[in-house]
Specification:
16% strand; 161 residues; 2 domains
Amino acid sequence: MKPDPVANSENNCLLYCRVSTTLQKEKLKRQRERLAQFALMNGYVVEHLYEDIASGMNFKRKGLLNLLQYCQTHPIKAVIIEYKDRVARFGVDLLADILSSYGTKLLVVNQMESDYNQEIIDDMIAVIIHFSSRLYGKRKGINKAKKIKQQLLEEQNDPHQ
């Protein structure tokens, strides 16, 4: 049996891409291309690509679960994602620790400097969208969340508070 050069690579990686809706398929394609280019430019050998079209709040994503299972059974140097929220809205540190326990690093391509207050607002909006979409349906839930976000931003910018 011939050894698989990818499986024996010291710099092998997996790519993970995610978008929230099927309307974002083009974004998924561009995300995939940017990650593949990043991996190549940084000397990684892409072993597999995993992707999902699902909410970042949903941990029962086929691509994510398959990626974790693969890392558990194969020596992988890195899992490359574009932004932290592509792998999960919450619990990114937990996923990074799980991957680390397999000897795999979670590599975030675009580490954005973020304002803590803005992060809190974005997280609240993600939770509101998730639950209001479940209650009212996708479109109504997103519209309600946008209204709440606008109110939060107005309150944050109000100098009288």
